[in-house]
Design a protein that fits this description.
Blueprint (H helix, E strand, L loop, with lengths): L16 H4 L5 H8 L5 E5 L5 H14 L8 E5 L2 H13 L6 E4 H16 L6 E2 L4 H10 L6 H16 L7 H8 L7 H18 L1 E2 L1 H14 L1 H10 L2 E4 L7 H11 L5 E5 L14 H4 L1 H4 L4 E5 L1 E2 L4 H12 L4 H4 L5 E2 L8 E7 H17 L7 E5 L5 H10 L4 E4 L8 H16 L12 H9 L14 H22 L5 H14 L8 E5 L8 E6 L15 H15 L2 E12 L37 E3 L12 E2 L6 E2 L2 H6 L11 H18 L9 H10 L4 H5 L5 H16 L12
Parallel strand pairs: 1-7, 1-8, 2-3, 2-6, 4-5, 6-7, 9-10, 11-16, 11-17, 12-14, 12-15, 13-14, 15-16
Antiparallel strand pairs: 18-19
Helix pairs in contact: 2-3, 5-10, 6-9, 8-9, 10-11, 10-12, 15-23, 17-18, 19-22, 20-21, 25-26
Length: 727
């Protein structure tokens, strides 16, 4: 037996049932020992809930109380189910079934369909969008690509909430749900879609649950067979179950109570998909004799992060808030959360990128850092800022900004309008560049006012609105710029961000971050209108936004930065306000929350700098014409984009060749060495000393140490670089 067998990659299987309990804290141990009757585990973020329930199952199996084949553990993602199966194998309980609700239901449906219905199970639709499009066409309702996605989502919501087509409009009105189109139209499309499925003998993903429920309700012999197979059930993330999933679980159980559920009402953030915490909150009412165990020892986050998380929930309202858990950090103290206020969005993105770069330089792996935002349309400015700072990044749960369908379509439309010039009637009444862009993008779905509600239509509008804002900023920085100039700028930005995916800083929405954790987390754009989002109207919707921020905070292990900007663009009116959810928690926002066991409150608000020093930065002026610069690329060059350049073209090409070679050696995209703009600035100023090189934006101490010797050698006319530098 090699030493590797004892490593964390190959942990030793516990020799006895009692050994399975080793290392559990008192509450986790209580969960593991509660093998009889209904059990409800209320588990806060980072408290080791998966550890508790897998050890519970393994202990029951190893002690002979539970039969491996008689246990069904269900959760919501394939990743979570796979993790559970892996842990159970390591604990000597490999025969236990750990599946998603849909996977478990599909397996039963395939097995029992010939007996219950006869013949083969209808084909499963992999993508229902095409059939929804056909249903809309038959109803003479025209849907664009994004509306089609939204209507498809509405049909899915209706089915998991067990709403039939005829009842859909009334249910929408009663629940105050923002439908993407007239509810009567959606109800009509929904009914036609269901008819098309029946005509073609196909079923969709939601039908898997519905049909399994139907068979178990109608065929008691089949229901009895399933119940003989599975005597014990475990449900993870119970706050996310839909009414349809709860109905299936009830049928699996029958009149038994051998059930263990695990959840946290404070992490309910998917109500728009039909998830509801009501089943978790009502568990003790439905099962009066249930054993209830609370896991509140937080092993993920420092006391400082935990204190902020507790403070957020202390202000929450509503039924879920009444069952909140007060977390107690089990980690050593760490740095206080940083609250950073910036003048505008570009400054916030650049400041965030500088902080990220400093953390990486201090030894925090880039893969252990995340920048989290409310909506995917916010990613572009952070993609650009990280690229300019030479920090590799990867997007999670979303396409890169310039790869999104609506952004590509907008680029094609703008390019066509630029070629047509004065011959495009769309531009007849457009007096300046922003007006021209607004006119062109109005044909692609942009309007002066955002659409109501969330969903694909809103996401599309946000992406187009980001392009409109970019055009406004571009015109402000370059008076007299044409539509062709803007198209060239967009092409340059897109090219800079089409680098291969690398292991780097994670950019993700708060929803996509659920279930993940990092050493350092940056929560950005925390202003009213974005957090809570502007279309959160009801008290219940606002409270879900608070829970979303809570989920973001609890993703951080050690370093946490929360930031906002006072205006959208440089020079704009500072009219924005930080999110209401931080009131009483961030310095200067009223009385601070009482100090709990999570940690102290000594944080301060920093204003727009990466090192925490308060700075008053005057306007940056073009070194050629003296005009005030506002665009990041121009500020890096210290001149207007269209002012004459004194760049040494030969030096620039040598620097590009060197950069390509170094990037290849490091296995990174070229922009992680230096961006094109930084190389241009070097070729224009031809630094002779380390100090002169360090003064160029985009270099900094880390890159000076790493690449400075090479760059100065090239600038001095030596053949190639030295090939050395501190890595």
């Amino acid at each position: 037996m090699t030493a590797a067998t004892h490593s964390t990659l190959f942990p030793r299987v516990p020799e006895t049932a009692d050994a399975v309990l080793d290392g559990l804290d008192p509450e986790q141990r209580e969960v593991a020992l509660a093998l009889g009757g209904p059990v409800c585990v209320l588990a806060g973020a980072g408290t080791g809930k998966t550890r508790a329930i897998t050890h519970r199952i393994a202990y029951g199996v190893r002690a002979g109380v539970l039969q491996p084949a008689g246990v069904l553990a269900v959760t919501f993602t394939n990743r979570a189910a796979g993790e559970m199966r892996g842990r159970l194998r390591q604990l000597g309980a490999g025969g236990v079934q750990a599946r998603t609700f849909h996977s478990a239901a599909l397996r039963q449906l395939q097995f029992f369909w010939p007996k219950a219905v006869g013949g083969e199970l209808p084909r499963l639709l992999e993508r229902k969008v095409q059939l929804v499009a056909e249903a809309a066409a038959r109803c003479r309702i025209r849907l664009d690509r994004n509306e089609l996605r939204d209507v498809t989502g509405e049909i899915e919501w209706a089915k998991v909430t067990q709403t039939v087509p005829a009842d859909y409009p009334a249910v929408v009105a009663k629940s105050h749900r923002d439908a993407p189109r007239d509810p009567a139209e959606i109800g009509q499309i929904y009914a036609t879609y269901e008819q098309l499925k029946r005509d073609r003998s196909v079923i969709d993903f939601e039908d898997v649950l519905l049909l399994t429920v139907g068979i178990l309700q109608d065929r008691h012999d089949i229901a009895d067979q399933v119940r003989r197979q599975y005597q014990h059930f475990v449900v993870d993330e119970y706050q996310d179950v839909s009414p349809l999933q709860q109905r299936l679980l009830d049928l699996w159980l029958g009149d038994r109570d051998s059930l263990c559920v695990v959840g946290d009402a404070s992490q309910t953030i998917y109500s728009f998909t039909g998830a509801t915490p009501d089943h978790l909150l009502n568990f003790r009412t439905r099962h009066p004799g249930a054993t209830v165990v609370k896991l509140v020892r937080d092993y993920r986050s420092t006391p400082q992060v935990v204190h902020l998380a507790n403070g957020l929930l202390s202000q929450a309202r509503g039924r879920a808030a009444e069952h909140r858990l007060e977390l107690i950090s089990q980690r050593d103290p760490g740095p206080e959360p940083v609250y950073a206020e910036y003048a505008d969005e570009p400054a916030e993105a650049e400041g965030t990128a500088r902080r990220v770069r400093d953390l990486v330089a201090a030894g925090v792996p880039a893969g252990e850092i995340a920048v989290l935002y409310r909506i995917n349309a916010q990613s572009e400015v952070y993609e650009q800022a990280l690229a300019d700072a030479g920090v590799p990044y990867q997007l999670r749960g979303a396409e890169r900004f310039f790869e999104r369908q609506e952004v590509r379509e907008a680029g094609i439309a703008l390019r066509g309008a630029a070629r047509a010039g004065g011959n495009d009637s769309l531009l007849d009444d457009a007096e300046d560049l922003p007006a021209q862009v607004r006119a062109v993008l109005s044909t692609k779905g942009w309007t002066t006012e955002p659409p109501a509600g969330s969903g694909a239509v809103r996401d599309r509008w946000e992406s187009l609105a980001a392009l409109v804002r970019l055009a406004e900023d571009f015109a402000r920085a370059r008076p007299g710029a044409t539509l062709s100039d803007l198209v060239a700028e967009l092409d340059e930005r897109a090219a800079a961000q089409h680098a291969p995916t690398v292991q780097g800083v994670t950019l993700a929405s708060l929803h996509a971050a659920k279930g993940l954790e990092w050493d350092a987390v940056f929560l950005v754009g925390l202003t009213e209108g974005m957090m809570p989002i502007t279309y959160a109207k009801t008290d219940e919707q606002v409270e879900e936004e608070r829970r979303l921020l809570y989920v973001g905070v609890t993703r951080a292990r050690v370093h946490l930065t929360l930031s906002w900007s006072l205006s959208r663009s440089p020079g704009g009116r500072p009219s924005r306000r930080p999110t209401r959810f931080l009131k009483g928690l961030r310095p200067g926002s009223g009385a601070l929350g009482t100090l709990g066991q999570g940690g102290g409150v000594r944080s301060s608000v920093e204003r727009g700098s990466a090192d925490g020093r308060r700075r008053t930065r005057g306007p940056v002026r073009c070194r050629v014409c003296g005009t005030t610069l506002t665009e990041a690329g121009a500020m890096k060059l210290m001149r207007c984009e269209d002012c004459p350049s004194d760049m040494d073209e030969g030096l620039y090409e040598r620097l590009r060749d060197w950069r390509a070679e170094r990037a290849g050696e490091l296995g990174q995209p070229a922009y992680c060495v230096f961006t094109d703009k930084t190389l241009m600035a070097i070729a224009e100023r031809v630094p002779a000393t380390g100090g002169e090189l360090a003064s160029i934006s985009g270099v900094g101490t880390r890159k000076l140490n790493r690449f400075g010797a090479d760059v100065l050698a090239i600038c001095a006319g030596e053949e190639g670089g030295t090939g050395v530098g501190e890595d």
